[in-house]
Amino acid sequence: MGEVKPTELIVICFMLLHGFVAALNCTSPTPKALLRALESSLLPEKRVRPVKSFSDPLNVTISITVVGILGVDEKAQTLTTVLWEVLEWKIEGLSWDEKECGTTRVSIPREMLWTPDVIISEFMEEDKSPGTPYVYLNNTGHVFDDKPMRVVSSCQLGIYTFPFDVQNCTLTFGAYLHFASDIRMIQGYSAAMTLEESKQVMQTNGEWELVDITVGQTTLTIDVGSYSEIKYHIILKRRPTLYVVNLLIPSCFLVTLDLFSFMLPPHSVDRASFKMTLILGYTVFLLIMNDLLPVTGEQTPLINVFFSLTLALMVASLLETVFITNIQFSSSQYGTVPRWLRVLVLRYLAFLVCLKPKKPSNKVTVNLSSSNTEPAMNSSITSISVQNISSNAKLQKAPPAAPPDPGLVELRKLSRDLTAIRCQVDKHSQGNSSSQDWLMVGVVIDRLLFCLYIVFISTSFITIICIWAFNNSIGA
């Protein structure tokens, strides 16, 4: 046996320590020679995992880039995105010399290699993106599989704060069949690098904006075994300008117009017709803009509650206007205001809306005082009649009396007329008092609904502004 030179011994030791074995022998530094060497080495081994031992896991590094956000379907609860997926793994025992084969990297057909069965767990539709038939293979045995993907994935969407909502959708990458002991998923680029690169190559500028991306490595454990997974959390924010301009601002204009309609006097202007026109216009507006509203799921969007309450207040204001108008023109036909209603409305609610009840008018006081003087007149008339009767009794034996005094007859007629007038005045005064009470009830209810309108509009505006500010702070 010949002696081994020290230089050769050092090279052999270095190659053994680094696991580098020149498995391919190229006859010449040409693509044909390298391809023939690869076919003789790779094709027989492409049916099994490229590892030295079955107990060794294959490390698959994954990196993604979000190229576009095509849309979010609230009804189907799905997210449609376009991704660039890069998978990297190493074929154990495969390498070649750059000088001998002429290159450090070569693209070969995908069918020549064993490829990992990495899928997205949230897939809802078949991937319809164009396929890439080639992968890159380095002289160190590393394989780079870069391909585009059109992903339709499931996502639990929360639309309560629509159109100021922020969605957090998850894309879970992992092997479909192989356990964690066979394929181990490893994170490639960091979350910050993934987000930065995605914003640089983003090719869509639609309704949704990419806010943040977070990455985490997890293990799914079930009865048969555990699976290695990489989870990407894609955080999206809706751009609300379209909905603010087309939905919220016109609705607020109509509500404000209905609010100022309370300043119209119902006894001189047909306020009811004006409010009915507003309700009709608001209903047509909601029907036209119905396509912009999301389909409700488990949660009802806050904007739908806003529209419903707005329409309810408009209807309530119309009913209140009808009530006020009826009181204005038909209150004389009603009886007295019930005691419980008088106490509730004229005492407590009137104090709540800062309205003082009106004092009784002087006309009623004069009527009551005039009615108190009539008994004296009746007593005087009665005394005159008694004196006449007594004088007639003394003169019964006298000759037949003369005809009745015309003045006495006139006084009796006047007494009957005064009694009838007093009854009419009392009835009229009672009716005026009842009408005034009913009118006051209507005024108090009108003021109460006006205050509720102001409170509702103020609360709605403050809530919308706060949600919008919070949404913008998340984007910042």
Describe this structure in words.
With 476 residues, the protein is an alpha+beta fold. The protein has 10 helices and 10 strands. It has a 6-stranded mixed beta sheet, covered by helices on one side. Helix 9 (362-394) packs antiparallel against helix 10 (406-475). The longest helix is centred in the C-terminal third of the chain and has 70 residues, at 406-475. The radius of gyration is 47 Å and the shape is rod-shaped. The two termini are 74 Å apart.
Q: How many helix segments? A: 10
H/E element string? HHEEHEEEEEEHEEHHHHHH
Helical content stands at 40-55%
The number of strands is 10
Distance between the termini: 74 Å
Provide the β-strand percentage band: 15-25%
Q: What is the makeup of the main sheet?
A: 6 strands, mixed
- Main sheet: strand order: 3-5-6-2-1-8
- Write down the overall geometry: rod-shaped
Quick overview:
The protein has 476 residues and is α+β, with helices and mostly antiparallel strands.
Keywords:
alpha+beta; 476 residues; 6-stranded mixed beta sheet; 10 helices; single chain; rod-shaped
Give the secondary structure arrangement, pairings included:
Layout lengths: L5 H12 L13 H12 L15 E16 L4 E13 L7 H4 L3 E5 L8 E3 L13 E5 L3 E13 L11 E10 L7 E5 L3 H11 L6 E14 L4 E13 L2 H20 L10 H18 L13 H29 L8 H14 L9 H33 L11 H70 L1
Parallel strand pairs: 1-8
Antiparallel strand pairs: 1-2, 2-6, 3-5, 4-7, 5-6, 7-10, 9-10
Helix pairs in contact: 5-6, 5-7, 5-10, 6-7, 7-10, 8-10, 9-10
